[in-house]
Amino acid sequence: MLSDCITNSFDTIVRYGGEEFSVILPDSDKEEVLILAQKMRCSVENINIRHAFSSASDHVTISLGVHTVIPSEGLSMNEFIRITDEALYKAKNNNRNQVSVI
């Protein structure tokens, strides 16, 4: 479902942990990334997969954390991941099924 949302051949989706995915968009600005994130969120929600054992929703939804940067030598990968993870948990802690950006 997520890979169906991307159209640029340079964009990549990879599993990052048990239930997390990373979407790498090397040629996208913040506005484009936010539009894509909302498209992904809506696509998953709209297929309406039942989730009987969830306390958050009766169907599968996703929360997305967005962080965009222009790569530089001073940018640490660990810091980038930490900030992106912070955005994800902001979405999760704010009732889920949403996009959060830092």
Can you describe what's shown?
The protein has a single domain (2-101), classed as Alpha-Beta Plaits (2-Layer Sandwich), CATH 3.30.70.270. The chain has 102 residues and is α+β, with helices and mostly antiparallel strands. The strands form 2 sheets. It has a two-stranded antiparallel sheet with strand order 1-2. The protein has a two-stranded parallel ribbon with strand order 3-4. The chain contains 3 helices and 4 strands. The longest helix is centred in the middle third of the chain and has 17 residues, at 30-46.
Features:
single chain, two-stranded parallel ribbon, globular, 37% helix, alpha+beta, 102 residues
Task: Measure the end-to-end span.
Answer: 25 Å
Per CATH, which architecture?
Answer: 2-Layer Sandwich
> What is the number of helices?
3
CATH third-level topology? Alpha-Beta Plaits
How do the helices and strands line up, and which of them pair or pack?
Blueprint: H1 2-5, E1 12-15, E2 21-24, H2 30-46, E3 64-66, H3 77-93, E4 99-101
Parallel strand pairs: 3-4
Antiparallel strand pairs: 1-2
